[in-house]
Amino acid sequence: MHILRNLVLAFACLCSLPAFALSDEARQHLVELQSRWAEINYRLPQDEREAAFEKLAQAADQAVKTEPDAAELLIWRGIILSTWAGAKGGLGALGLVKEARSNLEAAVAIDPQALNGSAYTSLGSLYYQVPGWPIGFGDKKRAEALLQKALEINPNGIDPNYFYGDYLFRQKRYAQAREALVRAQAAPDRPGRKLADEGRRAEIRTLLSKVEAELQ
């Protein structure tokens, strides 16, 4: 399943500080998950990421147990499972992305505004990158609706604009993709997210160069 193997599920979707409802312990878990995710995704060699994400998923499980109704922790568990699926590839990744979707949907049910609507960005990314029926649940129209919802909540965010740009590029809507990626480029830095922002901006530059080549 090369489609799943090549998923660009690099979700650094935490754009704001944790909600005040989080306990100090849950807040610390959230920061630790963010930091380790960025290290694995942007610093580890490709062949080491699957095992590292699997271990991080175990930490995310424990974090969610400390505060099971915290939308922020559910979002990050979904992000970690999704990127683990991307590193794993193959049919074995389908179970992970389905579980990630369940976590993200649960987060939306609890607080759709959590982390600047990050659950919508992550869900949208899943829906356009996972294969469609009968293999998976992928749905391009659903993906666009979710990504647009994320942009309604966080119109200037680096992640919703990047993933919308990636979606548009894959749909061959190159002029619109360039607009989204330029907005992503102009997004402000996120406090405490230096490594994630550096990695995302590198991805934006790479994708934007592909878009520009198609527009020539």
From TrEMBL:
Q: Which Gene3D superfamilies match?
A: Tetratricopeptide repeat domain (1.25.40.10)
Alphabetical list of InterPro entries matching this protein: TPR-like_helical_dom_sf (IPR011990)
**Which residues constitute the signal peptide according to the record?**
1-21
Which Pfam families does this chain map to?
TPR_19 (PF14559)
Q: Which UniProt keywords apply?
A: Signal
Q: Does the keyword Signal apply?
A: yes
Q: By its UniProt entry, which SUPFAM superfamilies does this protein fall under?
A: TPR-like (SSF48452)
Query: What protein name applies here?
Result: Uncharacterized protein
Q: Which organism is it from?
A: Aromatoleum aromaticum (strain DSM 19018 / LMG 30748 / EbN1) (Azoarcus sp. (strain EbN1))
